[in-house]
Predict the 3D structure of the following.
Amino acid sequence: MIHLYRLLFLPLFLVALPRYLGRMFRRGGYREMMRGRFGLGKDLGPAKAGVKRVWVHAVSVGELQAIMPIVEALCRRMDRQVVLTVTTSTAYSLARQKLGGTCLDIRPFPLDFLPFSRAAWRRIRPDLCILMEGELWPEHIHQARRRKVPVLLANARLSDRSWKRYRNLMPLARPMLFRNISLILAGNRQDAERFGRLGIENVRYAGQLKCDMPVEPRLSTEERAKLREKLFPGLPTEALIMLGSSTWPGEEAFLVELLGRLRQSVQDIRLLLVPRHAERRDSVAKLLDASALQWHWRSRGGEPKHGTLVHLADTTGELRLLTQAADFALIGKSLPPHKEGQSPIEAAALGVPSVLGPGMSNFRDVATGLAQAGAALRASDSTDAARLLTLLATDAEQRNDMGGKAAEWFASQRGARELTLKAIEELLEADIADIS
């Protein structure tokens, strides 16, 4: 089956290569990323006797932040080494900043094609391979199988789209992917059940790793007030800040239009926009220019002017910091036509009440749990989302109540880190024949 994948991959790779290279140029870090993506880099040699080497792959910033406590815990042990790979240049930069002195090596993940994947495996030589969430790479998994290296899928999830696809293609997916995965740790109970319904037996429920990650920096009341003033100079104490958290196309326009309406009924409200992809900054800037609202472009430097109504935070790695300036938030990628949803966990951890659109398939259990706990409001469509955001803008008591419940919900979800570390040790000590 892997031979069929290779035959299909080659023409797709050649067609997609120009687009891929263009995206790398736009996101930056081109020179550093290229060698790793083609499987090149330092040959690490075999691990010393008694030392086990773990290859952890986290695609982007979100996955990296979730797995970081696991990486740090493994690296604290003298008999463990971690090689960390990432896909995006932003995750690569963050990984080097946070874990550069901790991991044995940090490098880009190789493209999932035979020569690149094989070259990387020959240089890294792990004893265990960890993949995150829904990232299943057939060639990567095949190389692990050839070398009898166990594969762990951590914080695993099945989006509605993936669930339908695997149900229809399971005769292909089972031998190519799932048969070669040693253990799946599901991030929620529904996905654990879905994996089981696909006929996969090596599945456990572990919970959300993102609920175990440290929430830093956590600002004091005084620091939060200074941040709000820095984002919007001259901001009155009673003014509100509405956050667009990891927004996608269409959601910025929705929030800008809503801001205009809210400013007619709410004494003073501002909008903090944090788009999911920083390279979309130009299209968002055009939208803001057309709105006639005074706005500030964070990445272009300088201080915002007094009277700024919209702050475009087109930077990377600041969402947790900026979320603490907000009074309430809309979670991005959740309004039609988007269906997957971005993570609402950071907002909950920081006690910020949020509105979730109908599309939250990537965080289904999290969204349901937050709504049931009274920590978030679920909207049925964009019109309903506008109504719920207006409700939060005009009801301070509800905002405070929801913020407290959000923090309580987050505290109650912790524990996935310990279960994941336990599973890692089991796989490192077991023979692959015992768990495959």
